[in-house]
Design brief:
The chain has 6 helices and 15 strands. Strands 7, 8, 9, 10, 11, 12, 13, 14 and 15 form a 9-stranded mixed β-sheet that branches. A 4-stranded antiparallel β-sheet has the order 3-2-5-6. The chain has a two-stranded antiparallel sheet with strand order 1-4. A hairpin with a 2-residue loop joins β11 (about 175-185) and β12 (about 190-195). It is about 20% helix and about 30% strand. The longest helix has 9 residues, at about 15-25. By secondary structure, the chain is an alpha+beta fold. The two termini are about 30 Å apart. The chain is elongated, with a radius of gyration of 22 Å. It has 3 domains: about 1-55, Structural Genomics Hypothetical 15.5 Kd Protein In mrcA-pckA Intergenic Region, Chain A; about 65-135 and about 230-250, Pseudouridine synthase I, catalytic domain, N-terminal subdomain (Alpha-Beta Plaits), CATH 3.30.70; about 140-225, 2-Layer Sandwich (Alpha-Beta Plaits), CATH 3.30.70.1560.
Length: about 260
């Protein structure tokens, strides 16, 4: 794919278009061993060897990022009132250390997590993949750890499995509920659960428990299809997906 050199550098995460133009003019960029002459110079991505300060740059059409979303931020590209998930895509938040921050242009979250919900969030510019993952026809499973106020019992498990009425026009599709532990705090009984749904309606997990007389007091997404939250990522940290994870996601959500 042929593109301007300054666009190539920007999409490789070397800075904004104005930043990379300065790098080119400073003679720090070489194409096939020759210092680049000007920002508008054409380069063939995947064929030409482009280096910045001697470091080989690799261009990717699509980027796939796993963020461990912390509570207290909104799942949006921009927001004038609250911090967004995109504000965490910085080198200092990357795992492993030294990963370059991506250019956020065209990147967007795949779906939404509530502001107070933590956990797995995919951020990408691959719109076709996002459509497949979020399409109701894809039935891609999402698993959450939910800490719930109230006694969660076998009747709740059965109700979730049978398709629960929770205020939508149609009942929820069958969901899997597993009780991990039960205990007490100063306000009463609290249960930790695993819940797997194949939809993504507005506040669905919270509303389904609410329909059973329970309150979700903590929620973390652990997986989306084959993609599982990396246990090495602390809240607010991110990393690029591996090639295997990308391939597994590409096969998820395909209609039979």
């Amino acid at each position: 794919m042929q593109m301007r050199l300054d666009k190539f550098l920007a999409e490789c995460g070397c800075g904004s278009r104005s930043d990379v133009k300065k790098l080119i003019r400073q003679g720090r960029v070489c194409v096939n061993g020759t210092p680049a002459a000007k920002p508008e110079q054409k380069t063939e991505a995947g064929t030409d060897e482009v280096k910045l300060d001697g470091r080989l740059l690799v261009w990717q059409q699509f980027r796939y990022i796993m963020l461990n979303k912390p509570a207290g931020c909104v799942t949006a590209v921009s927001d004038s009132r609250y911090p967004t998930v995109m504000s965490f895509l910085k080198e200092e938040n990357a795992v492993p250390d030294g990963t370059e921050a991506p250019v956020c242009k065209d990147l967007a979250p795949a779906g939404r997590l509530d502001a107070d919900t933590e956990g797995l969030l995919l951020i990408t510019n691959d719109g076709a993949l996002v459509h497949r993952l979020l399409s109701p026809a894809g039935h891609v499973n999402k698993t959450y750890m939910a800490r719930v106020r109230g006694n969660v019992d076998a009747e709740d498990v059965e109700a979730f499995a049978g398709g629960l009425e929770y205020g939508e026009k149609k009942p929820a599709l069958p969901a899997q509920l597993e009780i991990l532990s039960a205990g007490m705090d100063e306000e009463g009984p609290v249960c930790e659960t695993l819940m797997t749904i194949c939809e993504g309606k507005y506040h669905q997990v919270k509303r389904m428990f609410q329909a059973r007389g329970k309150e979700v007091i903590f929620l973390r997404r652990l997986s989306m299809g084959p993609l599982k939250l990396d246990e090495n990522l602390r809240p607010g940290q991110w990393r690029y997906l591996t090639e295997q994870e990308i391939q597994e996601l590409a096969n998820a959500g395909k209609e039979e």
